[in-house]
Protein 1
Amino acid sequence: MSYRKIRGWLSPEDVYVFDFLLDSQGRGDLVEIGAYEGASAILIGLHKRPDETFTVCDLFGLSLGDTAHSEESNVWYGDLTRDAFERNYLSVLPELPEIVQRPSSEIVHHVGAGTCRFVHLDGSHLYDYVRGDLEAARTMLAPDGIVAVDDWRTEHTPGVMVAVMERVTARELHPIVLTRHKFYAVWDSELAQVLRQRVVEWTSSEDLLQLDIVTVGLERWPRLAAIEVSVPAPPMHARVRGYVRRLVRR
């Protein structure tokens, strides 16, 4: 197995969280909206089970004819190509995921309703698009499915924060764990409480993660940060270890 230097913004603590959540879930399909060069897609793909489908949705340079969207894409993803994504993915895994090179608004036409256990949203960070992606995630996810939203509190992406917090304040979306960059949540409040406790218990055995609890009204949300950039210790799944070693030490 060979590895390329894959550009992206996947932080060490999110590598831990992805691994923990994906490895502890039941059966279901996987979706990523917004792939860039494939760092997070590979991590998700390493957790794909034989009877599951992993679908990646990205424009890979196609234009939507939307000025604001085009400006965002040119600034952050101007050199993004499908060839680069596929080359990176195949440097780690033997088969490509299902690729939908279409606007994310069309993902629900390619993925069945209620079939997914994990959906990662990292597409456009503009408010209207994030709202649509959240609704699509809700449609695709099974009742116990998890959505992970990238850049939920990054200063240059306020649209993500507003779209996410609208759903939180409406008591529709319920966080299970927060990191610097990602917001992990479910659509069921009772399930959220169970998963928060599992996150707290899991973190107690991880020496390289720092946990604190954020009190929001009557709720207590776990927040994680990596203490140092290092190879995650057991019980990280063995097939992920080599990829993670290259990823977090680059």
Protein 2
Amino acid sequence: MPAAVRELVEARAGGVLGAEVSGEGMNSSLRLVVDTPGGRLFLKGVGPGGRGGWKLDQAAALAPYVGEVSPPLLWRVSAEGWDILAWPALPGRPWADQTPGSPDLPKMLAVLRVVGEMAAPGFVTVTAGDHWARYADDPGVFGGDALVHRDMNPCNFVVGDDRAWLVDWGWAVRGPAWLTAAEFVLSLIEAEWLPGDAERFVEALPAWRAADPRHVDVFARANVAMWDEVLGDYPGWPRDWRAGKAREWAEHRAGLARLRA
């Protein structure tokens, strides 16, 4: 990072006493927790030519709308091709244990219950259908005006003693309220839940209970089609095990569909 950018960050932070790398990000050049005289901050940014600038824009724009489940955006600085956002560093573990029986799970459900009631602000124009329509046999199921997180991986939850937070809203889209819960179901299956057990667990979420089962079936099949494309383009991709989990869920949904017929 150029000296001028470091100085700008230090000026906004009131001084930097120490820093450590925090987590990993495919679309960010910078992920740091820094100690300042006023407390710890989490910094995320992209450098010149870096990917993900549009994600930072959306995360910054959404910050006032997701304050019930995510920390407030404190400031943003841009200079010499760098764009950096700062949030308070949350008092918790930067990943959630999603395995069956984990004490993190009720805290995650409490967050997702709130998310399921969030409406997408008008500036969120990218829709769930924009991503899933190409893989779905019925793209119409992805319509809706809810705010969908769309990246339900355990590293996007910060878990504290009394609660959890949901972070990284850069991938958020406009879509049906049930879709965040459905993404969470698949994430639980990836954490070694049986599909039926994962679905029963999220029945505590009103948005999931209100979903048309046929729409969930479409989403499950669309995940299989998406992974077929990914693995066709990148054979041997290290996370190919996730394709098997998507297929496991789709087969479970197909069995439920036969029972409904």
